[in-house]
Amino acid sequence: MNDRPRLEGLVPERLAPKTRKIVLEDYIVPADIGFHDFEIGTPQRLSITVEVWVDEAAFPLSDAVEDAWDYDCLRSEIGVLVGARRFNLQETLARAVYDLVAARRGVTALRVSTRKPDIYPDCAGVGVELASF
């Protein structure tokens, strides 16, 4: 039981949340991706970041697990998607992740980025990004 006093009604309306965001950041997955001969059939590291803005109804007010927006499921679905086939382009893979997440309950805005971190020694990564804004 929580003995802390409830603050309901004490937060001024001007400070009420206007947006709610869930983030899966720098999820590193092995991906068979790329169109160069040396890339085909040789999985490489791919970093995926997904930022999902959700409506108020999809963002839990309680601490109940059943009310949560399931990012464990989100992570595993993306892993299955990436491992299910080979991709020539990051653009194609990013679009597939984007479509997967955009179809979920409560999504109001979305940003998906992919990065290959091991392509250039003088760059942190090279990639693409899709956003609904």
Question: Can you summarize this structure?
Answer:
Helix content is 20%, strand content 29%.
Describe the protein.
It is a single chain. With 133 residues, the protein is an alpha+beta fold. The chain has a single domain (19-131), classed as GTP Cyclohydrolase I, domain 2, CATH 3.30.1130.10. Helix content is 20%, strand content 29%. The chain is built from 2 helices and 4 strands, in the order ββααββ. It has helices at residues 71-83, 90-102, and strands at residues 21-31, 44-54, 107-116, 126-131. A 4-stranded antiparallel sheet has the order 1-2-3-4, covered by helices on one side. Helix 1 (71-83) packs antiparallel against helix 2 (90-102). It is elongated and about 60 Å long. The chain starts with 20 loop residues before the first strand and ends with a strand.
Features of this protein?
single chain; 133 residues; alpha+beta; GTP Cyclohydrolase I, domain 2; four-stranded antiparallel beta sheet; 4 strands; 29% strand
Structural class: alpha+beta
CATH class group: Alpha Beta
Number of helices: 2
User: Describe the biggest sheet?
Assistant: 4 strands, antiparallel
The percentage of residues in β strands lies in 25-35%
Average pLDDT, rounded to a whole number, is: 90
- Unreliably modeled segments: none
What would you say the CATH architecture is?
A: 2-Layer Sandwich
Give the fraction of residues assigned to helices: 10-25%
What name does CATH use for the topology?
GTP Cyclohydrolase I, domain 2
Find the count of extended strands (DSSP E, 2+ residues).
Answer: 4
Q: What would CATH call the homologous superfamily?
A: GTP cyclohydrolase I, C-terminal domain/NADPH-dependent 7-cyano-7-deazaguanine reductase, N-terminal domain
Spatial gap, N to C terminus: 42 Å
